[in-house]
Every structure is written in C-alpha cells, then in structure tokens.
Amino acid sequence: MSDTGKPVGPIPTGYETRDGELAVDGQTTSQLVERAGRTPLFVYSSAMMSRRVADLRAAMPERLKINYAIKANSFAPVLKHMAGLVDGLDIASGGELDMVRAAGIDCARVSFAGPGKRDSELGNAIRHGATLNLESEGEAERALAIAEQLGTTPRLAIRVNPDFELKGSGMKMGGGAKPFGVDAERVPALARRIVDAGAEWRGLHIFTGSQALDADAVIDAQANVLDLAQRIVEKAGVSLPKLNMGGGLGIPYFPGDTPIDAQRIGAALDERFAARSDTMADTDFFIELGRYLVGEAGVYLTRIVDRKISHGETYLITDGGLHHQLAASGNFGTVVRRNYPVAIATRFDEEKAEIANVVGCLCTPLDRLADKAHLPPAEVGDIVAVFCAGAYGASASPSAFLGQGPAAEIMV
Ligand SMILES: *Cc1c(COP(=O)(O)O)cnc(C)c1O
C-alpha cells in the first residue's frame, strides 16, 4: 500500500462528535439516516444557515442588503428558511421563479438574471412583479413589448458586463466578451431607453465573480463596481434605486484554503458608503451570495457498500457519487482534482489509520469522492460524510446519470 496519502479539505466549523459519530445540531449520523429512511442523504442545518447570515450582517454595514442566489440550493425547506433570513432572492430561470412562488415568497423580493430568458419566462416574471436583470438590448425590447401586451409596468434593471473581474475568482463572469450582461459602455443608452419607455427603473446588477477567499480581491472588485455604477448613472442621467454589487465570497473546500475575512470587507464597504456622492444617497445596495450562505451548512452522507483492494490500494465503494456531488468528484469547473473535506461519519473520533480511495457507485472512473485519504479503517455499512455539500450538490449534479436517482434531502 502506498504510504503517502493526499490531504482532504478542512471540515467546516459547527460539526460535532456524539456517541463516536458525526452529529449535526445534536443528531448523530445514525439518527439522521434513520429519520430520512435511506442513504445517500443530504443533511442541511437551519441553525448553521441562520448563524452564517447573522454573522455576515454583523460584519457588513447596516445599509447593505443581502440576497440569496437560490441556484446554490433550492430544496424547498432551505428556500423557505433562507427567505426568512435574507432581504431578497436571486433566480436565474423560470423554473426557479416557480419554486420561489411555490414557497410562498413575494416576487417583489425577487430579481431574475440569466441569459436566454424565453418570452414565457419574461411574461411570468413581469406578471408576478419580479425584477428582470436584463442581459441584452434584445431582451429589454422583448420585456417592454410583453409588458405592454400585459398592460403592466415591468420592473427592469440592467445586468452590466463590467470591464474588470474579481481576482482569484473560481468562476470568471466579468471582463471581456461574455454572454452575461450588457457591455458597460452601452449601458447608459439602454438605461435611458428603459426610463423613457415608462418602465419601473430598478437600477444595475454588476456581478464580477465567485468563490474568492481573498478579502482584498472582493474589496477591490466592490470599489470598481461602485465607481462603474456611478459613471453609468451619471452618463445616463438616471437615478440608481438599486445596485446589486455581486457577491463572490467563497468557502474553504480544499487543503490549505482558509475562510474569507468578512469583517475586513465590511469595514472597507463602510468607508466607501460614508464617502459616497449624492447620486447614491437613496440607493439600496445589495450583495448576492449562494455558497457562502449555505455551502458549509450541508453534509452529504453515503453508505459504504463494498470494500476492496486493487493493486494494493483500498477502495471504499459507496451508494452515492458524482450524480449528487459533481463538484466533490472534481468534474465541476476544476482543472486539478483535489479532495473535498471527507470523513467516516460513523467513526468520527477514531484514529485515521489507513489510506483509502472513496468512490461512488457509478460505472465511470470519474466517480471519485476522495483520493488516497487518511481515514479510520471503515467497513461495509459505515457512512462517509462529504462536507461543503449545502451548495451546488443536489442542485448542480446530474442525478439522472446511470439511473441511480436523486439523494434524499432533509433540513434539521
Ligand atoms: C451563481 C451566481 C451567484 C451565486 O454564486 P455563489 O458563488 O454561490 O455565491 C450570484 N450571482 C450570480 C449572478 C450568479 O450567477
């Protein structure tokens, strides 16, 4: 057996050991699995989400409002819980609009970004009073025409494709040619068009990137966003009722990752707000976050169904896999595969005395949950925990692949 293992990512704070097992909010792994009735299983902690939002609010200026980007996790109980904690919700499809409505959330709190909005999606959003973050001049004209047909005043904002991006961002969504937003230099003309057409002008949306762990990168991006917004509204001669400044706060997934310093970001923003010009005196400022709010509050539990040795390496084969946890498998926007935080949930306090590969049950070599991880020796029937599963797990994985079906989900 190879004696050099590979490190795993840091287990988020807030998880405990109880009766030798991983526990979430006082409930052991065995109790959680019994409650759900099966594995694989996503467990989301409402207390951890509440704590995260409260800590973030304490770190940020009071004036800053917080939106939840529901694509991170749209499980109905999570969506309802989050809606009670945040100021607004960001959606990116007509399907997400349906989810928000089914959860009983007022669409006046909802903004809808995303390229390729169909006429039916624009119509539904306008009818229910959601704000459209327009991604192009063409989409703006379609929205205005649909609103006229409906006899409704649409709520319209413009998503700007900024000429800069969030440095060190996991996913680049600004800077240069992009399918997202309207190029910054064309935004003033479009803003005038919207105001002159008699729509309810809702301001600007400037998203610069995701998954940053460096507070300075976020501070720089926010300063650039504020400057760009100011230049645009001054040039257009329009007000700025709302500025969605994007998000970008990331979470530690991999060995060596450290949490982002939200206090520093809040302090810098406080200074920027204090120095703001009159143009933005009445502006509502928002940040929009997905993974930072819910990612660490979720854990994925999957049962070991086989244990085997191949060429001297130990394989723990589980009933889960990339069809639920695509990102943990290393196949969701990563170049080099690194290990997410993993543990043997049913032996959470035992010594990590062996090196094992944890794989899923799909018949593809892509289906890896941990490579050469130091773990307590585990047997068939034990349960593996993969952390950082609260965002882009169930909502971003190909659950139809190979017919294994979706995982169970519970919120505690
Ligand atoms: C995906 C997305 C988010 C959320 O990103 P996180 O990294 O989960 O915080 C926010 N805004 C927009 C426009 C997005 O596309």
From TrEMBL:
Protein name: Pyridoxal-dependent decarboxylase, exosortase A system-associated
Origin species: Qipengyuania pelagi
Gene3D superfamilies listed in its UniProt record: Alanine racemase, Lyase, Ornithine Decarboxylase, Chain A, domain 1
Lineage start: Bacteria, Pseudomonadati, Pseudomonadota, Alphaproteobacteria, Sphingomonadales
SUPFAM superfamilies xrefs: Alanine racemase C-terminal domain-like, PLP-binding barrel
InterPro entries: Ala_racemase/Decarboxylase_C, DCO2ase_PEP1, De-COase2_CS, De-COase2_N, Orn/DAP/Arg_de-COase, PLP-binding_barrel
Coiled-coil spans in chain: none
Recorded GO MF terms: diaminopimelate decarboxylase activity
GO biological process entries: lysine biosynthetic process via diaminopimelate
Active-site residues, as the UniProt record annotates them: 363
Cofactor(s) listed: pyridoxal 5'-phosphate
